[in-house]
Amino acid sequence: TFCIVAGSLACNARCAWCVAGMTPKNAIEVGKAPPIDKDSFLRACRLAELNHLDTARITSKGEPTIFPEQISEYLQLLESFRFPFIEMQTNGILIARRKPVTDRHLQEWRRLGLTHICISVVSSDAERNRLNYTPREAEYIDLPRLINDLHGFGFNVRLTLIMQRGDVDSGEKLRDFLAFARKNNVEQVTALPVNKPSTSRDDSLYQAAVRSALSDEQLADIHAFANREGTVLSTLPWGAKIYDVHGQNLCLSSCLTVSPDVNESRQLIFLPPGRITTDWQYAGAILYDLPKVAMT
């Protein structure tokens, strides 16, 4: 996957175990989104093309939809490379509320080739999602309505389920979540446990991740459920498996880069203004960085 970082560290959610807050900033700061150095970005696109990457994913160290115009800019730059799949990872809140994201943005993004909108959740229960993402607000978004809305604009929807202790932490609870996805015609579900990077720049976030992490027994129960009730469709190079579970697509995965059984890199990452790297956890995994003299 070719991962493209949009926006800044600015985020409208308050996840206690924010992965972006634990991993290196890679020159991304709070505030305005850094400008995109087009030459560096096109270099990254060409490298992705040479490595036969079929998916480009717009993501963020914060929340990408805070900066919808930058998303449009990325999509315009990607257009000539004709990636079969272009995804955007988001918490979905600003899309649901249409501020600052508007219908015009959604129509433009679809026209420019965005195929999938991937919404991060911890549960199918609105109150559990509110407590995790927007604890200072009275209500969470209407998730089924957002899914239906995005389908109306022509997008595929993937629910990115962050499995944590107390929410989806067993095979039975995953079964219930997949039933919710199936009921709402969600094309894909990616389920991944709360992850603890090997090093963290924020100890409070790291400790929250430790408290929320699933036990080995809970993970074993989840995988046993998927293997018992699902059919393995494919195994990805880093070990994630794609299942059909009663007609619902499911990927059991991990959001960090390193897999102990794989020697090859699983993704290419572009961070504005012009850094190209292969790993979220390690600041030294740089392939190219825009010289500072070029930033001034």
Characterise this structure.
This protein has one domain: Alpha-Beta Barrel (TIM Barrel), CATH 3.20.20. With 296 residues, the chain is α/β, with parallel strands linked by helices. Mean pLDDT is 90; it is low at 257-264. A hairpin with an 8-residue loop joins strand 11 (275-277) and strand 12 (286-289). It is globular. The chain has helices spanning 19-22, 38-50, 68-78, 93-97, 103-111, 126-133, 143-152, 171-183, 203-212, 216-229, 292-295; strands spanning 2-6, 55-60, 85-90, 116-121, 156-163, 188-193, 230-235, 241-245, 248-252, 268-271, 275-277, 286-289. It is 34% helix and 22% strand. The longest helix has 14 residues, at 216-229.
Quick structural overview:
With 296 residues, the protein is α/β, with parallel strands linked by helices. It contains eleven helices and twelve strands. The longest helix is centred in the last third of the chain and has 14 residues.
Helix content: 25-40%
| Count of helical stretches | 11
Number of domains: 1
User: What is the strand tally?
Assistant: 12
* CATH evolutionary superfamily: Aldolase class I
Distance between the termini: 31 Å
| CATH domain class | Alpha Beta
Write the layout of secondary structure elements.
Elements: E1 2-6, H1 19-22, H2 38-50, E2 55-60, H3 68-78, E3 85-90, H4 93-97, H5 103-111, E4 116-121, H6 126-133, H7 143-152, E5 156-163, H8 171-183, E6 188-193, H9 203-212, H10 216-229, E7 230-235, E8 241-245, E9 248-252, E10 268-271, E11 275-277, E12 286-289, H11 292-295
